[in-house]
Specification:
Distance between the termini: 66 Å
Number of helices: 7
CATH class of the largest domain: Alpha Beta
Main location: membrane
Largest sheet: 4 strands, antiparallel
Structural class: alpha+beta
Order of helices and strands: HHHHHEEHEEHEEE
Subcellular location: Cell membrane
CATH topology of the largest domain: CRO Repressor
Radius of gyration: 26 Å
Helix content: 40-55%
Strand content: 5-15%
CATH superfamily of the largest domain: bsu07140 like domains
Membrane topology: Multi-pass membrane protein
Keywords: Cell membrane, Membrane, Transmembrane, Transmembrane helix
CATH architecture of the largest domain: 2-Layer Sandwich
InterPro entries: DUF421, UPF0702_alpha/beta_dom_sf
Length: 228
């Protein structure tokens, strides 16, 4: 079987259809901008799951007519207008009913309380801890003991409430070089942070089980003050 690069890159593309693709793309791009403006959003920050689904729907409806000769633009516009009307209806219902809004958007989730991670069902974490530690580093947080409360909002943003300098307690380090020194073997007496739930314990033995999550991996806790 002969391999044909022409089929890979051009297939049955003609100059006339190439020009048509440019025109279709320009028209659909303008329509998408108009439809998005009609949603009422002023811009894009973090999107909720529902809004991501709407954007995916717009993209699917707008993308195919740009390069598919058999698909007309008007049916795609009908799809996008339908999605827009559905979006406006659902957001109106969400504004009228808090329970419906909670089902649609979800609820804010407490991640840190009193300098330690909140555990789901007292046994498991329900978020990507590595990503969350990266978020803390971006907020100039060196260890979890500097944070009184952290809340994961429905938009994906994290709201942080800090301890004052005098109330800062020892905490789980967020810096990779320090955090990656974690081990089940305790190398010296001192304050250690559980790498799973951030519980702080003063440990003297060579091994120790966390009283909160029953894990045995620890890293040396630090108690530096927060730099604003």
């Amino acid at each position: 079987m002969k391999f044909d690069w022409n089929d890979v890159f051009l297939s049955d593309l003609t100059m006339a259809f190439a020009i048509e693709i440019v025109v279709r793309t320009f028209i659909m791009f303008l329509i998408v901008l108009i439809i998005l403006r009609m949603t009422g959003k002023k811009g894009v920050r973090q999107l909720s799951i529902f809004e991501v689904a709407i954007i995916i729907g717009f993209g699917s409806a707008a993308g195919d007519p740009m390069f598919t000769r058999e698909l007309g633009i008007v049916p795609s516009v009908i799809v996008m207008v339908t999605i827009l009307l559905f979006y406006r209806l659902v957001t109106w219902l969400a504004a009228k009913n808090e329970k419906f809004e909670s089902i649609l958007e979800g609820d804010p989730m407490y991640i840190i309380e009193d300098g330690v991670f909140v555990l789901a069902n007292d046994s498991d974490l329900t978020f990507a801890k590595d990503e969350f530690l990266a978020e803390l580093r971006q907020q100039n947080i060196e260890h979890v003991g500097q944070v009184r409360v952290a809340i994961l909002e429905t938009t994906g943003n994290v709201s942080l409430f800090y301890y004052s300098d005098e109330d800062t307690k020892p905490g789980l380090p967020t810096l990779p070089k320090v955090y990656n020194q974690k081990s089940e073997e305790i190398k010296g007496e001192g304050n250690y942070a559980c790498t799973y739930c951030a519980c702080i314990q003063h440990i003297t033995a060579t091994t120790h089980q966390c009283p909160r999550c029953e894990r045995k991996e620890w890293v040396k806790a630090i108690d530096t003050k927060r730099l604003a």
